[in-house]
Amino acid sequence: MAATPSVDCRHGQPAARMGGWDAGAGWLEGHPKTRAFIIHRGTNGIYEAIYHGVPMVGIPIFADQPDNMVHIKAKGAAFTVAFNSIKTEDLIDGQKHAI
């Protein structure tokens, strides 16, 4: 059986792995070159971004995500893009606003 290829490395842990469910397991927001995090607004991603002090561009889709968006946006830690009417320009504006 071939070894699973990994990309980059942080603190001895693979940052991304082809196959398996660990790509993005806390490494993206902590990377020193991360300037903004595009997120669907799930709780785990929000906690990681807050912990690492990374501003967020939120695209809430369902469940608790719109409510999470309201709270984080009110604190000034995020910019929101509407999922149902998203355009390329909206995402670019969100990134510029977050950075």
Automatic annotation (TrEMBL):
<dbReference type="InterPro" id="IPR002213">
    <property type="entry name" value="UDP_glucos_trans"/>
</dbReference>
<comment type="similarity">
    <text>Belongs to the UDP-glycosyltransferase family.</text>
</comment>
<keyword id="KW-0808">Transferase</keyword>
<protein>
    <submittedName>
        <fullName>Uncharacterized protein</fullName>
    </submittedName>
</protein>
<dbReference type="GO" id="GO:0015020">
    <property type="term" value="F:glucuronosyltransferase activity"/>
</dbReference>
<dbReference type="Pfam" id="PF00201">
    <property type="entry name" value="UDPGT"/>
</dbReference>
<dbReference type="InterPro" id="IPR050271">
    <property type="entry name" value="UDP-glycosyltransferase"/>
</dbReference>
<keyword id="KW-0328">Glycosyltransferase</keyword>
